[in-house]
Amino acid sequence: MTETLEVSARTLRGRFRRSESEGSRLRLLERAAAVLAQESQIKSALTSVLIQSLQFLAADSGLVLLQDGGALNVQAAHGAVLPVGARIPLGGALGAVLRPPMQPSLRVHIESRLRMGENPDVALELLLPLCFGGKALGVLVLMSETSRVSPTEEDLHTLQTLATLIACAASSLSTSRPRAARRELADSLARLTSREQQVFALLPRGLSNAEIGEQLGIATGTAKIHIEHILHKLGLRDRTQAAVRAAEWGHRA
Predict the structure, then answer these.
(1) pLDDT tens across 154-180, in order?
(2) Hey, what domains does the chain have and what are their CATH numbers?
(3) I need a labelling partner for 73 at 20 to 30 A (CA). Which of 2, 88, 138, 149 fits?
(4) How many CA atoms are closer than 13 Å to the CA of 211, on its beta-carbon side?
């Protein structure tokens, strides 16, 4: 009799956990659909849905990336990752997930090029293609520094459905650079001297002032002054933001 009761209790607990899990997946999709449908600013909505997906997976950082020519632009970001506006070459695992059959990719214990800071290591990186109308528009990236995340097959199906909702909403965004933006870019670069443009082009490499000086044959202090002038002229906070802007504008040494 006791054994029968224990088996019944375990069965009930298992059913309860499955019911709770199914409920959480349904709530995620319902909340995401509501935000994407009601939020007037699509980029704000993408950030909100990104955070919801991270909470669902118990992950700590992620991005929404949309295709723009041969690269991916960061449209939403959360955690220690590249900031909004960064431009990432379309290749490697990111490129592979956007090629047929456009399936999610789950990688563990890797160095991620999407991370910011000194430690690029992540225990998990989940790449979900953003597909709409038969076209690959971008990638939803979810990452975790720890190995506590272990998505089930049902979780992956739910997150891919969420990625489709994101793709549907993001399809209204035009990521191509309009003529006015190109003119603004040219005007911004014109504010820099030729030497400052050379220094600016080296910033995405993450070089120190001394290394920049060595590359250009100038003193370390001179390189530091050039960077200060660049930040002032372009209205940027720090050299990290300048490096992201340089990469975004196509200054790749």
Answers:
(1) 888 889 988 988 988 887 664 444 555
(2) 2-170 (3.30.450.40), 179-248 (1.10.10.10)
(3) 149
(4) 7
